[in-house]
């Protein structure tokens, strides 16, 4: 765990106690069973927003606290532990950073305060196929209107404001579209991890450009990738700890199975990988806060290492629990499904290895 | 010796600069430490003079107490000395197992007489030490060692065999684990010191797969250790041995981190030179490219973890759990790297000697082979995993190894 300042320690402690008391995995299970269409519990989201979590990266003049990315990463890590579903990632990191980095004063004044207080939810509409590929954009902007199809827009089903990548007269950039625009047609997706997502068709929807072009698109995506990696870290650490506890109580052959070296060494491998991944995730968030030029490679490193590690730990969670891990009544399946969805979101391991290699000149 | 109790680093830096300029022979600038060469050729008069000067000054072991000839400096002050040596292109001529492992352990567990006798010659670089720990039947399970010491009044008489004794052929003294009670395992081990220059000691270097002999078999036939050279209580050697192994492991994982950015053209350019690149400048072997990236990323995450655990230890949170993973993560990275280097070089990476191969190619094959030892010595990777399982994760221990 990175060395934290006082604000960060307080945020982390607040997030830890809130998730454990108000949003344990049973709350996620209840949300899934309710079949709520947005894929999160609105009351829980209101409580999170009341604690100021949606404004952590938003400047104070727009109603945020401007604590930075390591800080919001600490909150997401705790949310990840209990699989708490919320729009925090795509709204308070994704849409918020797009507006902070590329919004006009008017756009910032209109949307950032609402995003900070959680009364508006923003989403990022970037991908147009089954794989994350931000450079492949066929959605177009012309004459103030956007036309095209975006897929797997996380929290996109009822988002109030959509930040959409499209090809305009000056190349690819972000455009702001209101969720209730008549030219927006949304289809809710039911995904294995029970989180909210939609396919969205834009049929000449009214759009306003953000500034910064493709550069801001990449910067925003890197902020979301790093923050998502923090959520994955929390989930993976929790999956590991639950599994470790099970190794200490499950008895077979007259002894706890955690006394078997075959399982011990797999546990030690997971611990080792988690420590390495934690370093990468924290370094990426710290680099964003410090504004260093190596953010893209550090983010790709973090997302790739975290993806591999969560993949391993979620598989081992099911395997080491045996039959009980296959049952829906157990939480292991939730972590397994969340792992794959989070791996695929904003670039899987293969995407980020390739990106890292290109940056390094391979 | 100047007193830097006030912690005035600038004054120390000036003194260090002047002292190094006055004492470090210009002809040795940028030259490697002769101690690091395996054959340990006879030192030149300049090398001897530099060793003596540093030995008298105590700066070879800057943080050791001045009472035994050490520098008596704080860690921050020691870094100043290290920086100034580096700036002057000067190596530290004081090293070896006495400095890395035995000295720190004796300073912690030795009697006043033992420290007075043994620490100053290490500080001055006059005597070299070797480690008598592993035996043919006691590798990972070190506490099962059998080399026996019998009580004969003022002396112990030692019979048995040690193996993997690094540098025994050059060593003057041995710090050795011996069995002084056969009825118990861990509680029957003592930690003794004796000279290697005696009739009962025979050393045979072991040729290794990399073609060198850094380790020896060492045989003891009625070898003698004086009673005054028992460190710690009789049958209380295991505690001391564990402490010493911590010094060894921290040194080894440090070596892992030190291997980064080893100058030269870098592995990416090397790969393009041997394997070729496509029109987009990508390494043309896409399978190799992926594995190379993964190794690059592993190395980067290892570096980040080294930084993180250092920051954590410095803050109030105390020693970091991340430290326990460093040896396995570092050695795994190095071995993967060596395998990739060999693969990149193809047949050229398999040359043993001769002018048909570059020194880089010959170095790659020897390094690859020599590097296999890193996951075996200093606690094998399996032992490291046992330690993580038991001490960090709290899983039960069936190996019964306290």
What do these coordinates show?
The complex is a heterodimer of chains A (362) and B (402). In chain A, strand 4 and strand 5 (171-178) form a beta hairpin. Chain A has three domains: 6-117, Butyryl-Coa Dehydrogenase, subunit A, domain 1, CATH 1.10.540.10; 122-211, Butyryl-CoA Dehydrogenase, subunit A, domain 2, CATH 2.40.110; 215-359, Butyryl-CoA Dehydrogenase, subunit A, domain 3, CATH 1.20.140.10. Chain A contains eleven helices and ten strands. The longest helix of chain A is centred in the middle third of the chain and has 37 residues, at 213-249. Chain A has a four-stranded mixed β-sheet with strand order 1-4-5-8, with helices on one face. A four-stranded antiparallel β-sheet of chain A has the order 2-3-7-6, with no helix packed on it. In chain A, helix 1 packs parallel to helix 4 (69-81), helix 4 runs parallel beside helix 7 (213-249) and helix 7 (213-249) runs antiparallel to helix 8. Chain A is 54% helix and 15% strand. Chain A is of the alpha+beta class. By secondary structure, chain B is of the alpha+beta class. Chain B has three domains: 13-94, no CATH class; 129-240, Butyryl-CoA Dehydrogenase, subunit A, domain 2, CATH 2.40.110; 259-392, Butyryl-CoA Dehydrogenase, subunit A, domain 3 (Up-down Bundle). Helices cover 43% and strands 14% of the residues of chain B. Chain B has a four-stranded mixed β-sheet with strand order 1-4-5-8. A four-stranded antiparallel β-sheet of chain B has the order 2-3-7-6, with no helix packed on it. In chain B, strand 6 (201-206) and strand 7 (215-226) form a beta hairpin. In chain B, helix 4 (97-109) packs antiparallel against helix 6. The two termini of chain B are 43 Å apart. Residues 1-6 and 254-263 of chain B have low confidence and may be disordered. Chain A binds chain B through residues 1-3, 244, 247-248, 255-256, 258-259, 261, 264-265, 267-269, 271-272, 275-280, 282-283, 301, 304-305, 353-354, 356-358, 360-362, and chain B through 268, 271, 281-283, 289-290, 292-294, 296-298, 300-302, 304-305, 307-308, 311-312, 314-315, 317, 321-322, 325, 328-329, 382, 384-386, 388-389, 392-398.
